[in-house]
Design a protein that fits this description.
single chain, alpha+beta, 5-stranded antiparallel beta sheet, about 20% strand, binds adenosine-5'-diphosphate, binds manganese (II) ion, ATP-binding, metal ion binding, metal-binding
Length: about 260
């Protein structure tokens, strides 16, 4: 239709590099009409100047490198056509902060995007290194780009470190889980070597991907906390770190 074409033209003005948006199928799944509209709104507000290469295509969201008028930013777009929103609903419904959210698929996804933004803010306030959120608009989260010159920091799983550094990274990660729980009142809920980036210069961890993070009041928060700790303890075994996840859990719970 005319309308779709017009919005599409506007997004072209964002200098979307189409060759970077993977396959045509992905492009259509991500950049549906409401998403293009939202991108257009963000462009009009001067929040996104240009959108560039795809950083990641995940189960529910795509992450793109973009620019505002002076720096790189990361744009995470939750697909409205996402097929996994049923599990999203479970997380949203147990969270007292989202008591008034309507239960349509779109509204759940918009609430999810807002939730990720709020979780990142709380995490940052508690002293964790996380991408600073800039704007959450409908299904789009704009945040600080964690990387150098357009290259994202590596995920923990792809970053090899010395044993001593590994112990420091491990301790920082456990401290972050502790701060998140005891200061921010949150449990990450999907913590693993995939959702931690490493800043190569300092070898410091950065927590990402907090859409599913829940408050301590969530009925499954303890289960998620234990799972997060277990994932980290398991991953660091290859560096000779043998810490008992249950001991770590007890320490965090008894603060
Ligand atoms: P998903 O739900 O798809 O796993 P993530 O938030 O984990 O979404 O992002 C997917 C990938 O995109 C990450 O593993 C990371 O490599 C990259 N990424 C996400 N956010 C940022 C960011 N703010 N800066 C740089 N890279 C990012
Ligand atoms: Mn992830």
């Amino acid at each position: 239709t005319r309308k779709v074409k017009r919005i599409d033209t506007e997004v072209d003005k964002l200098r979307m590099r189409r060759k970077d948006t993977d396959t045509l199928k992905v492009k259509e799944n991500v950049f549906d009409e409401p998403t293009l509209k939202t991108l257009y709104t963000l462009s009009n507000k001067g929040i996104i100047e240009a959108i560039g290469g795809s950083i990641s295509t995940g189960k529910e969201a795509n992450v793109f490198l973009a620019e505002d008028n002076e720096k790189d930013i990361a744009v995470k777009i939750y697909r409205i056509s996402s097929s996994t929103f049923n599990s999203m609903e479970d997380y949203i419904l147990g969270d007292p902060r989202f008591r008034n959210v309507r239960h349509s698929k779109r509204d759940i996804i918009f609430a999810w995007t807002k939730k990720e933004q709020r979780n990142l803010v709380r995490a940052k306030e508690a002293g964790l290194r996380v991408p600073e959120p800039i704007v959450a608009e409908r299904n789009i989260l704009v945040m600080e780009f964690m990387g150098n010159e357009g290259v994202p920091f590596p995920q923990l799983k792809d970053y090899r470190m010395e044993k001593e550094t590994a112990k420091e990274a491990f301790d920082t990660i456990i401290n972050y889980i502790d701060l998140l729980y005891n200061e921010a009142n949150l449990v990450h809920g999907d913590l693993s070597e995939y959702n931690i980036l490493i800043i190569p210069e300092t070898e410091e961890p950065v927590f990402i991907d907090m859409g599913q993070s829940v408050t301590r009041e969530h009925p499954r928060s303890i289960e998620f906390l234990i799972r997060d700790i277990e994932n980290i303890a398991r991953y660091f075994k290859k560096y000779g770190i043998r810490e008992d996840p249950h001991q770590l859990y007890t320490t965090i719970r008894n603060k």
